Amino acid sequence: EQSFRFGRNKVNLEERTATTARGEIELTELEARMLRTFFRHERKTLSRQTLLSAVWGIKPDTETRTLDNFIVRLRRYFEEDPTTPQHFLTVRGRGYRFVKNP
Is the pTM for the entire model greater than 0.90? Predict the structure, then answer.
């Protein structure tokens, strides 16, 4: 599956495009990779290490704020209110979780 809908958003991973409440977005390869990882593991908490490895190929012992910056960006793109996310959730001390239908 290459096309996903959640909330008021539609994402086409093959074309790396998204339609959101704020308009059309062209996704970078890394953004598309992160979304694909979240979509494949909906409702599962993914550790920072799992995401860094799956998206960037970074060794699990590497710490980086890049991941956090990407989460902020995805929330800005896709959340109706990025300050109270419904889809891209932080699980304190464990990682992040994607929820299609909150």
Answer: yes
The two beta strands, 23-26 and 17-20, are: antiparallel
DSSP the chain: --EEEETTEEEETTTTEEEETTEEEEPPHHHHHHHHHHHHTTTS-B-HHHHIIIII---TT---SHHHHHHHHHHHHH-SSTTS-SSEEEETTTEEEE-S--
The pLDDT tens digits of the residues spanning 8-44 come to: 999 999 999 999 998 999 999 999 999 999 999 999 9
